[in-house]
Each structure stands twice: as structure tokens, then as C-alpha cells.
């Protein structure tokens, strides 16, 4: 039905005139030189003039768009209402409600863009900003499923082995057990929250100056750079979100994360790439101008219609992915929470502002942790090298008899069987445990029976004293 409707709206004859900037040219004429049409010309949008031959077709498409939007918005608001009634876990539900509100925002903005096409750049500021906010809300929801704070989340990730990045970067590996993984995925998503509204405002400024040129694919116009900057930013955000999901999906299986990521990515993927495909069709002259509106206005109409259709599908996915029954008490299903505090908590933007403000502090803390770990590794390496350079240590000695031992040192070329030690005279009982000056102080020269090494020596009947040290000359290599 949608395809046939769009074909009817875009249907035209080859000899139909095209009206662009009050200049009428034949459709089959070749525009060149001074007659070339300016790509930055103002839009001639859908004609709502009752005397127009296209009036019935355009109004029919607009009415269908409104019906789709009303149904999807009603389904989304009902689900939010049920969450507010059972707002028992606000740490999860505030982010869920923010995700659910994508449907009303997208649907309402699309209806406005269909009717008031000349305000499209202004309306895009609201829609694109909320898209980034909803994507970050889903990322925060996944992390909260893992743990209430960064330390708890890191503890859940401890012990995970290194993994390959998802395609197309599967040649590189990452360590999910460290702080860096959680912080990096968070920053990848958070940058989209900043970049997307910034590029939309920048596009609005260029549109006001007449240099944006919507649907233009030329690098000489601002739309080219805005589109591809958004493409890079959104790709990084979605990739970071998908990498996090792949890593922790097994740890949060009880929350059914698969349906949730399908519902969120469906909205983001279809809205962005659908608009990009329609712009490409305009650039390739697949969508053409006719006597009543040009190709840019037709693309806006088609995009608004398609988004409202997609939002109806997304509303059904949200009911499946984010049911309110997950937060009801089966023993007391009649329990309700107060609506107003729940609404204020869910709609407050303070959490995302706190996260953006805390990002530099977390980065500095992460760098400090990395420096401390690096210093510990360097210190351990220095101590280990000094210990390895010792002539001999108790680890290298095996006690084979009451008065004999063996040395296992591959570094010195010794065999595994070892070499016998020289016999050491037994100490008299009256001086046993005394130091050289005759005092009874324990100078650490003998081993306590509670020590493992000392147990080995005591069982063998041998003892080392400071007055009779072990020397390299006592060994045969």
C-alpha cells in the first residue's frame, strides 16, 4: 500500500513542467550554463492547495501518516503509564521510559515535517538529539544490569578472557576484565550524545546561511560533511554498544537483552539509514520533481511516511522487550506507586548531565590507575631481576639427606639431579640457637618450625647458622 501510494504521488509525465524558484522548464530539457538549477533552492513542498490536482493524493498520504503516528504513540504512552504505576525499581525503569519515549518523539516530529516541511531543519534538532539520548539510555541500562556502579561492574567482569572485536575489527583483541573496556564503550556512546545535537545545530546554521543544500552529495555543500560526520559518530556508538552487548549478554541473560537491543537498534538503524537511502535516490534522480513539488520535498514526505510506519513496528517490539510485568510483584500485583514522582524522575535530564560532567574525572582516574599498575609491574620486574641474579636461593636447594642437599640451577648449567653439598658440622646443644656474641636473641639465622622451609630443614635434621654461612665454594658444578 505504501509503495503504490508513493508511486501515485511521484507519478509524472515526461512533458510535465517543473516549477523551481518561479522558473518553468521542460522535464526533458537539458539544463546547462546559466540555466543550471541551484541545488540550494528553497523547497517547494507538498501542495495542500485544494485546487491542486495532487491535493487528494497528498492529503491521503498525510492522513495515513497521522493514523500510524497516533497508534504508535498511544501504544508507547500506555506502556509508559504501566511502568509509572509499578515504578518499584527506578534505577532501571527511568532508563526504560526514556527509551520508550523514542516512539512519540519520532512519530510526532515526522508528522510535523510532513505538513510543515519548511521547518524540517528545526524539527530535526529535537528528533536527532533525543535519538542520541535514547541510545545512551540503553547503554546505561545494560551497565546497570551488570552492576550498580563502576566497581561492581568491574567485579562482574573480572576473570573474563581476552576476546576478538566484532567484525570488521576482528583482527584485534580486547580485554573485557579491565576498567578500560567499560569506560571506552561508555565514551563511544557518550560522544554521540554530544556530536549528534552539535551537527544538527551546525546544519541549522548552514541552512539559514543558504550553504547546507539538503540531499546534495557534493563536498562543496555542508550536507555532505554533516551526513558523514553523523555517520562516523553513530557507527562508533552502535559498535561500542554492540561490543558491550556481546561481552555481557551471558551475564545478564535473566533480563532478556536480545529483544531489547533489537528494539533499540531497529529504530536507530531504520531512521538513519532510511533517510540516507532516500537522499541517495534523490541524488541519483530516482525521485524526481514534478509540477507541484520538487524532489527534496518529495523525499521529506516519503521519509516522514516511512518513519511513522517503522514506529508502529517499533512500538510492538518495545512491548515485547520492555514489559512492565518485569517490575510487578506476583504476590501483590495490586500494588501501585505514585505517578507524579515517577514521571519527574524519568523525565529529569540531570543524570546524563552528571555523566557528561564526570567523564573527564573518570578519564583522569583511569590514567592514574594505569600509571599505578605500570609502576607496580616495573617494580616487580626490578625485584625479580635482582632476585634472579643471586648466586643461590633456598628455592634452588633440595634437602636429600640429613646432611646433604642438591642444587637445581639451569642457569649455571647444572643437571636436574643436582650436586651434593659439603657436610656441615653439627652445632653443640649448648650453643644451639645462640648468636656469635653469646646472646639468646633471634637474629633470623634459623628457621621457625611453623615455616614451610623451616619444616623441611627441621625434618632433615640440618640447620644453618650465621656463623657458618653457605658459600659458593661448597658447591660442585
UniProtKB/TrEMBL annotation:
* InterPro entries, A to Z: Ostalpha/TMEM184C (IPR005178)
Which keywords does the record carry? Membrane, Transmembrane, Transmembrane helix
* Membrane-spanning segments: 58-79, 99-118, 193-212, 224-246, 258-281, 301-319
Q: Look up keyword Transmembrane helix and say if it applies.
A: yes
List the subcellular locations.
Membrane
The annotated region (Disordered) lies at 403-477
Q: List where Acidic residues composition bias occurs.
A: 429-445
What topology does the record note for this protein and the membrane?
Answer: Multi-pass membrane protein
Predominant location: membrane
The domain of life is Eukaryota
* Cellular component annotations (GO), alphabetically ordered: membrane
Q: Per its record, how is this protein called by name?
A: DUF300-domain-containing protein
Question: Which organism's genome codes for this protein?
Answer: Geranomyces variabilis
